[in-house]
Structures
1.
Amino acid sequence: MGEVKTPRQWFLWSIALVYVCAFASIYVQIPGLYGDEGILPVRLQIPKVQRPLLEQESLLGLGPSLGLAPQQVLELTCLVGVALALCAVLLEPLRDSLIFFCLRLLYLSLYNVGGDFLRSEWDVLLLEAGLLAVLVAPLGLLRRHSSYRHHDPVSFWLTRWLFFRLTFCTGVSKLASGDPAWYDLSALSHHLENQMSPTPLAWYGHQLPDWLLRFGAAVVLQSEIIVPLVTFFAPIRRLRLFGFYVQLFLQLCYILTGNCSLLNLLSISLSFSLLDDDHFNSNTGPKKKKGQEKKPGGCAQMVSYLMLLVELAVYLFILYCFITLFKLKINWEEKTLSSETNFTPKGFNAFLEVFQELTIWIGVLSFTWEAVSAMLICVCTRGIVSKLWSLIQWAFITAAAAAVFALSVVPYTSMAGMPASKVLPAVRDAYSAVERFQLVGSYGIQHRMTSAKGRPEIILEGSYDGLTWTEMNPMYKPGNVNAVPPIVGPHQPRLEWLMWQAAQEGVDTRPWFTGLLQRLLQGKPEVVGLLQVDGAQYPFSKKPPVFIKAKLYNYHFTDPTKDKTHLQAWWRRQYKREFFPIVNLDDPALTKLLEEAGLKEKFPAQTGSDTPVSQAVSLIREHVKGLSGSLLLSTLLATLVGIFLIKAVFSWVLGGRKPRPVSADLKTRKPKEPSEMAEKSQTTAPSNRGGKKDSNEKKDSDKSPRKRK
């Protein structure tokens, strides 16, 4: 693989942008989730016996020294994270290893105290990608400049391995879990309405013909299982580019139909590991004139033809697998394409038993190739000191990358349905020792069965008298059947995500759900703001309800050809069962659940002192109060786009004033060594003396009588 300067910068820039979205999204929700009047107050998680700061799992211990309440510590953590990430997005010198180390430390602190609200797959992925950013980013703040290092391909290879694990495990988990919807290829039709936050475009996609949706499900499985196997670690550059564009197209489809989540942004960030500098420079580099192109020799031309044949063979293999595994047949009369799986769950498990261990060995060979190539480059470095320093850096980075790769094998082999591989006991022990630091994660294990019965949704209802009930429709998930599916963007509504999971699992005794009911009965504005920012849309904005209950409905996208009575509706729903019985604040059942969850105990609320830091945190909170998470993130992203546009305009306007670039010959001309200079001076000295003599002779000849005449 060629140099990776440009893909590395794109990866670091995109990871910094993801940090901006993640910290800002959590910051908006802190009062309702973790505040003193929130669902799960963070002050309840502070241990009574304080431990040293280095032994604590979060930064809450800094609160007393800074004069901040626990809620303000979380807010300050998010604000510092947003500020650092914004600086890294805007300024390339600040995409430094120290900056990314601080960002990961801040997010890990939030993760450790976040509880159920921060236990999603994208949180684990961001922590692991953040660790790789620490290894990939240059350490230039202490050296005033950062240069390309010979060992960069070794550390950057880890991002490709993570991207492979994420993509392959996501595809494998769909079939390894035994989900019948994926085996009969009807999953895509149900997925469009069952996903966490569908968009209006998902409704239109749901109206597509059944044969086209079944074909789309086959494309998804092919893109997530077969394509990564044969392209991600291929030595042929064009195959890796093919894998990149396939995954980019897949993520764009997910974004258009299911909103832009952090998981999609992280997947795109990791996909840059399949690129190299040649891909970015092929269209921007200077074009050579005719006759200046270097024609390859006979041997090189033969190798290029051989690689082209191998590349065509891989494409044919992908097409062959696609046709045979999914029985693709074209019906020319009806102009349709039929597809069905040509394998059974037993056959797929046999496939995993072989290819699980094979993929690990492919990773070992690919990593060894990158490490040895980087070592040879370091050995060829000029100068003994430079060579020794390059080898020391290479050894350190290679050892760290090998350790991360070995640790990642443990969760990689724990996928649902995959048999346990023969991992060394020492590696398992090391993984258990560092598991709390979230260095590596497992992906695909959160796959849920795709239900054909519709999308289960929890609908909260409140009442003043127990007879007349009014629904509390949230902002970011289906409620009112006539409401347009929302555009959430990169904002991650944590409460709606947990309610979506609870509806699928049918669990109603979680501590967070009990705390939610308590705060809604109390009418706490911080929690109400999680459901509806606009008071006009919340029916109990003036007075909280006396009674509250929860029902479970099954939602389906409407079909205009069948639902003639639902022409104005996006959804149709059916009542399934009661999810939570009627309760009020004095209900003994609710009191018992609160006591079991530890939410009924009388903990004194810790108020921060009136310090400058506390005042600044409170002032920022007052300015963003009443803003929804999607609006805040949209404003941040629009501001970043405006800054980049202004920067581009200034670069274009001032581009003509830049000095002319040095010609390629002068750039490639090497400085002369001292020994060469000395030899040249010795060889030119006699010629100079000879030159003087010749000039004297010339003067004498000018004075000759014939010349004077």
Note: The longest strand covers residues 571-583.
2.
Amino acid sequence: MAEKEELKKSRKKSPGVFGYPISIFFIVINEFCERFSYYGMRAVLVLYFKYFLRWDDDFATTIYHTFAALCYLTPILGAIIADSWLGKFKTIVYLSIIYTLGQVVLAVSAIHDITDANRDGTPDNMTLHIALSMLGLLLIALGTGGIKPCVAAFGGDQFEDHQEKQRGTFFSIFYLSINAGSLLSTIITPILRGQECGIYTQQQCYSLAFGVPAALMAVALIVFIAGSGMYNKTAPQGNVMVKVCKCIGFAIKNRFRHRSSQYPKREHWMDWADEKYDKLLIAQVKMVLKVLFLYIPLPMFWALFDQQGSRWTLQATTMDGNFGALTIQPDQMQTVNPILILLLVPIMDRIVYPLISKCKLNFTPLRRITLQIDKTLPKFPSNDEIQVKFINVVNRDVQVTAGDYDLPLKPFMASENYETFTESFQLSLDGNVSTVSLPKGTRNTITIVQQADGLVPIDFGDITKKPEQGANAIRFFNGFGSSLNVTVGDKEMGYIVPNNMSEYGSVARGSAKYQIKNEAGQECVIPQELGFGSSYTMLILPTFNFGPNCSDGVHQILDIEPNSFSMAWQIPQYFLLTVGEVVFSVTGLEFSYSQAPSNMKSVLQAGWLLTVAFGNIIVLIVAEAATLEEQWAEYILFAALLILVCIIFAIMAYFYTYIDPAKIEAHFANKEHDEKERRKSLDMVKKASFQHQDDDNKSSDSSSDEEESKQSRM
């Protein structure tokens, strides 16, 4: 009872400053922290899937967009809970608690040490990490989606009716806080991810990248609760979305029950609801359905837009992030979007739109987008292929014949390309023929060495995938006459015996130095400039010496090219998509609100959010169902689908007839008023008639009594 009384109490006046309720400052700070938490977590999410959970690109993309879709499906649930049961304040508090717990669980799932029993830097129980991360993401989706329709509306509730101007300013500041939180978080959390942390081994710190957003979400919750005593808390009034769904459901069921031809047709199928619902509600639902029909093609735009956090980020991992003295992380490229939004919104509003209006041009917000494809990516063998590179470490020319390939190799040189075979092949070295059998689906390096009985091919294997996260893979072949100790980066490879190959060591981009020592303690330092994602085999030649020019005795063989295609090439695609977002989102919402009934703006807001959810569902379907081996083919598929959708949408827009919801509502309101007046007149007539009849009855009864009295006296 106490809770009900609290909900029913009248609006109280909140303390103010400069004409604004103090309570809105708590709401703005809460929104900034929440958006920092959400976008910061999402910025590094797909890389967490790829590098920590070790999922392939397609599965990482699928789970990422499944999570994004849930985040835009749950707002409907949050709106119903707030409007029908708990009210906005309690809904925000309860779901924010769930939200915070989800962020904490996700941060814990990224601590590799909790299951690293053998302390090798790799979690031993990956199932536990996956289970925790999925639980965390589910809680986050419920929390962020559930509060999404409540926070802005709750902020609007803090203003009195005469504070319309202040309310408009509040919404501007509110959305500025969203973009500020998004911008800062997409800059900061990738930096945190790039730090190394751990108890036993140092790894990229995803736990810190998730932990800071979790802390910000806790701050958001505390700040929001701190303002509790200053808020205007309105009681739940019932959710109009539920009423709309019930009205539509009744119309469908009633039409199905009266599907026989003996029943006369009605002008619109929603008219079958007039047996239960008033005509004004039915007219409002018709207006909403008319706009929602136009929403059908819109998910295709969001399918492209939300790939910024998945496919585009994964694409950036294969590109060169060197911008002069500045090095950009792949997930930091997402900052281009909020930066461009802050720049483009005033430009579009104050320059572009007025020019378009003066030129009387029809302008569409949708833009086709095509992507540059990174040509530095190596092509690894399929399951029925064998790839082989030949390296000559003999100090003379060697003629290599392998199957149909005839390869003359210079001293200490490698074949230009990896040759592809589908089965075992004949290898001829200076006329000596041998059969080479290698497992299918493998990449191999056959090194030709000189031994006592002649030239001998030795298979040392090869790198199985392109180095990740911009690192470089380096290994050494010892062609010197004695054992050598080699250190690559921070990894000491140990002593390499003659005519043998070390393991690969991981080295960051920039100026690298390799240390070579012999058993006598002599030392040689080999410098090398490295880019992003390359692989080298370093040949220590028989002529190697520990003198001042020792680096001349080491020869570099390039196995995989570095990422030479700059991340800067992603900026045009971000620019085009952001222009599309500014025009598409702002114009789309403005159009939707202009065509929506006064009490059903929230229904169209829910419909708009659903288009985002369905767009993400499209991406995960394509990622899993489409059997496209090349990434560029998927980009072309999305571009073609968007062109098709643009054509369909243009046709739909051409036949769309604009309406004035206010006039329609006023028309039905007047009809309802006239109907009430008519009923009132009828009631008055009936009442007068009943009164006249009652008077006649009383007069008749009085005459009858007098007659009886006379008869009794007689």
Note: The domain at 18-238 is CATH 1.20.1250.20 (Growth Hormone; Chain: A;).
